[in-house]
Amino acid sequence: MNGDLPACGVRICGTGSYVPERRMTNEDFAKILDTSDEWIVQRTGIHERRICDPARESTFDMARTALERALECAEMKGSDLDLIIVGTVTPEMTCPSVAARVGAAVGAVPAAAFDVSAACCGFVYGINIAQGLIRAGMFRTIGVIGAENMSSIVDYTDRSVSILFGDAAGACILKRDPDPRIGCLYQRLGADGTGWHSLYLPRKQRDVPACDVDNPIRLGNIRMNGKEVFRFAVTKFREVLEEAMHHTNLTAESVGQVICHQSNLRIIEAARERLGLPREKVFINIDKYGNTSAGSVGLCLDELWRAGKIERERPFVMVAFGGGLTWASSVWRV
Ligand code: UT7
Prior knowledge:
Blueprint: E1 9-18, E2 23-25, H1 26-32, H2 37-44, E3 48-50, H3 59-74, E4 83-87, H4 98-105, E5 112-116, H5 122-135, E6 141-149, H6 159-162, E7 167-177, E8 183-191, E9 199-200, E10 223-224, H7 226-247, E11 258-260, H8 265-275, H9 286-289, H10 295-306, E12 316-322, E13 326-333
Parallel strand pairs: 4-5, 4-6, 11-12
Antiparallel strand pairs: 1-7, 2-3, 6-7, 8-13, 9-10, 12-13
Helix pairs in contact: 3-4, 7-8
């Protein structure tokens, strides 16, 4: 924190989200691939996911609508924002950023804008960066969005990856607050690039590591070593969650909601059981939306926020892991 600035807090003023109308059920997959509803439910907890209609929806459209809904919830206008951050690995273009186009669409010009590439951690990375910038006195009001059009990078001829993912966006508005007790109590960002080839999206043949040259998934689509990511995730989720709770003196009794990136129900359940967290404190919506990468945590936050389940004074935790490999946690008091 800058020494010459009065200490401040960060308030979550509103949340929003967007999911496409189009549903893709496990039965739909069973019609095109050698898979079944039973296999998918048992191994992932997913029943259906939402898929963009490419003619009228993509990352930008979802991000924009999620942010508009968050602004409405916060009773603010786009012009109140001085920075927009979008976590995504599925931007329509690498230039301009999704954030800059969203800023123009909601009337946030000349707010600063940039995208964060941290795969499924994109939203939590964005929130942590944003709250740090607010506390440092650089920005007052920031829109953070996680938006992902996974269906645009999934090879639907391959059953090992395609069944996991869906499309969604989640957003929140963060604002400087005079009460320093409000806001992020603890945060963690991490990455281990040595494991990058467990989850990656090669554009050219030269991007493909020797260990994966026989992968039948087409270039331009996401590839994943499910078993490797599963092993990493089960350990990392627990570690990151334990560490966040330890640093904030939170216990299974005192913590509020624990919002986990919706990667796989088995991964979330393993962490929940290990930490002795009651079922009602660990929000699950993977059954309806699948794994929506950077969209996931923001979507969960919006559902909980609107249901009035984020309690005042009882800190809640967000935790994610993903391609990179990356991980992130963020503990908040509202
Ligand atoms: O957001 C972060 C991104 N990723 C993750 O969190 C993913 C982490 N990993 C996972 O969620 C799991 O590894 C998967 C759900 C992707 C796969 O589950 P698994 O229990 O690890 O299955 P597996 O890869 O060990 O495959 C077991 C069997 C194999 O058959 P054989 O070799 O035992 O005969 C696969 O070929 O299941 C087969 N299989 C399928 N069968 C029916 C793989 N995908 C499917 C499918 N339907 N969709």
